[in-house]
Amino acid sequence: MTEASVESRPAPGRSRGRGVAFAAAYLGWVLDGYETYALVLIGSQLVAELVGPHASPLYFGGLLAVQLVAWAIGGLCAGVLTDYFGRKRVLMYSILVYALFTGLSALASEYWVFLLLRVVTGLGMGAEWGPGSALVSEIWPDRSRGKGIALLQSGFGVGFLLATGAYWTLSATGAGQWRWMLVLGAVPALVALFVRRSVRESELWEQTDARRKEVRARVRRGGELGAEDRALSRFTVAAILADPVLRRRLLGLLVLSAASLIGWWAVSTWIPSFVGQAVSGQGAAKSVTTWIVLGYNFAGVLGWLVFGALADKIGRRWTIWGYFLFSLGAVWLLFAVPYGSLGTLGFFVFVNGFFTLGQMGWMATYPVELFPTHARGTGITLVFNTTRFIAAAGALLSGYLVSAFGGIQVAALAIGSVYVLGVAVTFLVGPETKGQPLR
Fold this sequence. Notes:
Structural class: mainly alpha
Helix content: over 70%
Order of helices and strands: HHHHHHHHHHHHHHHHHHH
Number of strands: 0
Number of helices: 19
CATH superfamily: MFS general substrate transporter like domains
Number of domains: 1
Subcellular location: Cell membrane
GO cellular component, one term: plasma membrane
Largest sheet: none
Distance between the termini: 12 Å
Keywords: Membrane, Transmembrane, Transmembrane helix
GO molecular function: carboxylic acid transmembrane transporter activity
Main location: membrane
CATH architecture: Up-down Bundle
């Protein structure tokens, strides 16, 4: 296979049901964000109830790590399935799985039961991202794909806002607050019904799938295959690894992904606890913490949207590089620079959210343009999920460092410096893809 991949893209105006398909993927990603941040917000409360009030931070780190591993496994499997069975079908079943098991986890009475249920929840959550991102990228116009994907990705931050709002609203429920948060997480089951009834499959995938079936039929008849047809006939993972261009892109993207995911999961997930410690002892400390965390999540939504606009304006690579650079600075700003007031602390948190959440917009923008349609789902989920195993270790390591050093700052500064990898590698990954058609 050559640098140019094997499929051609239909005219954007012929894509069917673009708005409905986007809405389905967006709602799935919003509710994925809700599930993710709900666990961050209720983690200490549920650990205190299920383990004990003086439980080690490692119990919370363990929840994050297990969810990350399950997310990675579910995502990797779904990436392959979405290339063979379609974007719509995998999207629907993934939403249904994580919705149902989130609701079941609200009934857990022991930590290890909860942990097991979160494994299955994580499998479904991980499976949702790949088909949704592939579907939207294949129906969106080339000239504004960066904005479209950024809008999709911003749904994750909107889910964070919903989780924070729900946490605040349900605070009056007392010790059962964390259970009600999870009950609300069962709502996405309704989205799965919407996907099944309303969303149409990507034309680009349908054309590729038809061609793959034709190639397989030729193989059964003993026909000859050219290089492009052999790529279609291979297992998707093997097709990527066998192509030197795609293999090189995959390795570079994995480095960027490691920087993004380790940086966020091992650092930013501690921000609610960090802010809570900073405002403890002050009047309405819980309310102040909630407002600052809301600001963090709102900043992340803005960061995603600005990322998309810049990616379409100045290009993917310069935008990615800039966000990594400023994410590195934002970590040091928040955890190393003394703040003299709550206003200053809130500003530091806002800046951190804009860049550390916003920089993850590259993960659904750039990779979809570097892999061909017949292996796009596989390629983007390999990038997005393989490094979650490393991020899971980072989450455990950060929990250990918080315990060892008696504070969050040292752990955050040590692990947060991983963003320098993104600064160093961005321009080595692949070509600029701004405005180019998908293949």
